[in-house]
Amino acid sequence: MKYVTLSLWMAPEIRHPMHQFVVEHDGYEASYLLRGNEMGTEVQTLLFHVDGFPPDPYRDALERADTVREYAISTCPDETFYLYVQDSPSDADHDLIRAVTQTGLVVVSPVAYRADGSVGFTLVGPGDAVQRAVDAVPDGISVDVREVGEYDSRRLDTGSALTDRQFEAVAAAVDCGYYANPREGSVADVADRLDCAPGTAAEHLRKAEARVMRDMLGQDDSPSAGPG
After folding, report:
1. What is the mean pLDDT of the chain?
2. 83: how many CB neighbours lie within 10 A of its CB?
3. CA dihedral 82, 88, 91, 93 (to 10 degrees)
């Protein structure tokens, strides 16, 4: 059984308005689709984790989005929030969903809608279905195959617990020897590789370590407030 990790890019005019919001506004790194019911139907019920803050501008954009039927927001202690939404997918969304589901592959959560405009996700299934999935992506959407290999749920599940920036911070820390024994790198070294302040790098590492530890213990990262 194989997996393929894809990064897709589509033009702003066919991008979902809430993904476009993340692209256009500072302070929002990505929105991660965690769960979805009735994918490909006229109304989809979806659960997202949005790596961004504050939620109020995002809520205002939800109110303006024609495709959004209903939503609720729950904030988290780490200045992120969860989003429950009922949404009507566009024609482009329908085409993409059909492309990846009709090839016999399974979409592994989360699906990342990133601030650089890309959509990243992993498909799992028989090896001969991987190329069919790539070939089936609709015209007008560019495809970058990031990784292909033998499926290992432990690797993918651990990585999916982190945001893109947290994963980059951990990768930089490992590469510079921050986790070596004895330690060979510093937070400043990680910050240099991420091109950010040392305090920001330290915060990314702290959040990443906390998420991985909670995941190992099977603890839920519960939101601190009810639906807004």
Report:
1. 82
2. 24
3. 20
